[in-house]
Amino acid sequence: MGRVARTNERALVQNAGEGHLLGILPESRAVLCIPITYGDSLLGVLNVESREENAFSSQDVLIMSTLADLLATALHNAFVFQKLQQQSITDGLTGIKTRRFFWEALSSEWKRASRSGRPFSVVLIDLDKFKEVNDTFGHLEGDLVLARVGRLLEQRCRQSNVVARYGGDEFIILMPETGVDQAQALAERLRLWLAQDAMLAEHAITGSFGVASFPAHGFSAEDIIRVADAGMYSAKHAGGNRVSMAEEFGDGEQVAAQRQQLSTYIEGFLQREQAGTDDLEELASTLRRLCGDGDDCNVHVLKESIEALARAAESREFHAAGHGDMVGRYAELIGRALALPPDEIVELAYAARVHDVGKIFVPERIVTKAGTLTEQDYAQMKMHARMGAEIVGTIPGSLMLQKAVEHHHEAFDGSGYPNGLRGEEIPLWGRILALADAFVNMTTERSFAAAKTTEQALAEIEKLSGTRYDGMLVRVLLRQLKTGKTPSLGD
User: How far is it, in rounded angstroms, from Cα 23 to Cα 30?
Assistant: First the structure.
């Protein structure tokens, strides 16, 4: 094998004496050794040995040579694919991960954390005085600075962390299994490494760091990024070269305490094996108690907590991640077309995002079932509408939200649930959610049905106009989609 690898020439030994053939098998008497080459590159060696003498016919040699050629092509393609894949997730200048790769990693980590209740943190870094380097020394020197910062951050971070270039002179780090205090300490150490580096010190380059943690600073990936961004700007405005943690919504110790209490409770609640109806009563009363009464209740933090529960419920279903967000976008599209007041549109979109929060109480074996539900399973599934309404009802002044969630499975002809309401007996927001929810379900790959095209989904909805869905709302949705106003998660 060594000789073949050095000379790149095939070797065939048919009748070696005992102990004379230095092969892989000690008792080998025959060996066929073929270089695996693509162009001028040696990719490996195909080695076939036998305990019998004269084991390889000319036909065997031809077949093995053909196999070596096929292996060479397959290996070359695999290496090319691996290289292209690496290039697609690696920033060409700094050698660290790209923004796109970071968001995919963040999405995966958020799903894991939502299910387990475990924390993660994000650190966002903006370089201080970087523009002066480009203006004074040119972009080539600026590129060297960026590459140096990227190397320092990756070298000094834990292997489990994801270090990425977020923008021009912005970097971002995902820290799994890391709480608030630990993330702040790690960010402080990274700040010192940048500040003490000789090359960066020549150009007076330091970093402004913003830190945010799940679930202490928010219950969605977007919330965590916003809070980290706010912290980074806070550090920037304070003169740079510091680590800051900004509370995005509200100031003061009381608000921070409410947020922490709610996040801790939600963490524990999500770790329960299976929540039942008794847990619903406990959940509702605890949310009311932790939020506080009247003006003391931070409604935004409470809404955030309920949205976290809804996202956790989504994560238990196949292909359901982001379902509430998409329903919210179509509900908002319909609401705008109806010229609803702006504050109502905001509330309608929120109702859409949390409309399935009650599924957190439906057994996982039911929500993940690929086949048809039994009557007993379906009866349990139908309970999620009322349970969700009870959870949303913990929000002060939420009657319209509550009714929207409770009645989003009512049908225009009275055949829906939970109350069998008919026509305009069904609240307007409930009718809007029913239509938006159905359209998103039809156009999404499900465990029990393939996704329909937009045209197929609209055709099916038109057939059910006036029976299952409000005919007026169906016409509104058709008109909006035919004019090209299709919302997406990227909007």
Answer: 9
pLDDT interval class at 249 (50, 70, 90): very low
CA dist 326 and 124 (Å) reads 28
Residues 317, 370 contacting (CB under 8 angstroms)? no
What is the rounded distance in angstroms from the CA atom of residue 204 to the CA atom of residue 202?
6
CB 149 within 8 Å of CB 194: yes
How far apart, in whole angstroms, are the C-alpha atoms of residue 266 and residue 250?
20
Question: 3 CB contacts (<8 Å, ≥6 apart)?
Answer: 11
pLDDT score of 421:
94
**Phi and psi (nearest 5°) for 204?**
60, 35
Q: 420-427, long-range: CB within 8 Å, 24+ apart, which pairs?
A: 426/470, 427/400, 427/403
The stretches of 271-322 forming alpha helices (DSSP H) are 277-291, 299-315
Q: Where are the alpha helices (DSSP H) in 197-252?
A: 198-202, 221-237
- Residue appearing with tokens 């040579």: 65
Rg (C-alpha) for the chain, rounded Å, is 30
- Parallel, antiparallel, or unpaired: how do β-strands 162-165 and 41-50 relate? unpaired
**C-alpha closest to that of 197 among 210, 207, 208, 186:** 207
- Whether 322 and 314 have beta carbons less than 8 Å apart is answered as yes
Q: Give the C-alpha separation, 262 to 269, whole Å.
A: 10
Residue 176: is the preceding peptide bond cis (ω within 30°)? Answer: no
The two structure tokens encoding residue 117: 């209740």
Percent of residues, the chain, with pLDDT higher than 70: 90
Q: Rounded to whole angstroms, how far apart are CA atoms 228 and 188?
A: 14
Which tens digit of pLDDT belongs to each residue from 253-298? Answer: 556 666 667 777 777 777 766 666 678 888 888 888 887 765 667 7
**Cβ-based neighbours of 335, under 8 Å, separated by 6 or more:** 344, 345, 348, 349, 432
Q: Give 454-457 contacts, CB < 8 A, sequence gap 24+.
A: 454/481, 454/486
DSSP-based helix, strand, coil % in the chain, nearest 5: 55, 10, 30
Cβ neighbours around 60 below 10 Å, total: 14
Decide: 189 and 156 in contact? Cβ < 8 Å.
yes
| Rounded CA separation 439/452 (Å) | 10
Q: How many CB atoms lie within 10 A of CB 73?
A: 12
Distance between CA 177 and CA 193 in Å, rounded? 23
Q: Is the peptide bond before 418 cis (omega within 30 degrees of 0)?
A: yes
Q: Per-residue pLDDT for 490 more than 60?
A: no
Contact 156, 164 (CB under 8 A): no
Q: Calculate the average pLDDT of the chain.
A: 86
Contact 410, 427 (CB under 8 A): no
